[in-house]
Structure formats: C-alpha cells, structure tokens
C-alpha cells in the first residue's frame, strides 16, 4: 500500500501553512479553506482544521502531539537554521552533529510539533570527489 501523507490537525490552518511554506520553500495547495497540502520530493504534509475530522469526535486534539517529528532534509543545516531562526518560537536543539553523523537542528512549529531540519553525513565517495 503506497504512503499518501501525514496530516496535522490544527486550529489555525493559515498560520501552520505559512510556517511550513517558509520552512520548505513549497507553496501549499489549498482545495478548501480548512485543508492544505505541501507536496515535495518524497512526502506530502497535509494541514487541516478539526472540521475535516469532526466525525471522529475527540480522537484528534490540535496542538497536543508530543510523539511526532516532521523531518526536512537539507544540504546545509546551519544556513537553514539561520534563515528560519527569526520565525521560530521554541528551539529544542540548535545545529549539532548527532552521534550517528547527521547534522540536525530541532525546533517546534507554531502548534508545538517537533521539526528536525537535518543533513546526512558526506559519504566516503563524496569526500573523495571533494565534497565535505
């Protein structure tokens, strides 16, 4: 079964869409005021109002998640963090190299969801060709 998307339910679709448009550089498709999606290479992030899942009762609560990480792979974590930092309200981890080699910066989106902007370490073959 093909992966379709991850959907974040929020009380402020416009605010969260603006944040993820800034973070990803993508423009959201807005088929309805209560729903948007950003589709990039490898993934689709959907952002929707509670009205889109009203039939589920209280199964989804906006801005209450502490188990999700939205991960965005970039070439230069430090440059992306510097670009986004003025818009961030909570930095969890400034740019750092993780024990497994990834470079990461973690922060919360406007609803409190964790976002990881990361880059993978250079491979031995890319180092040999001059990439650092």
From TrEMBL:
The keyword Cytoplasm does not apply. GO terms for molecular function: dioxygenase activity. It comes from Microbacterium kyungheense. Residues 2-120 form the VOC domain. InterPro entries: Glyas_Bleomycin-R_OHBP_Dase, Glyas_Fos-R_dOase_dom, VOC_core. This is Glyoxalase/bleomycin resistance protein/dioxygenase superfamily protein. The keyword Oxidoreductase applies. PROSITE patterns: VOC (PS51819). Keywords: Dioxygenase, Oxidoreductase.
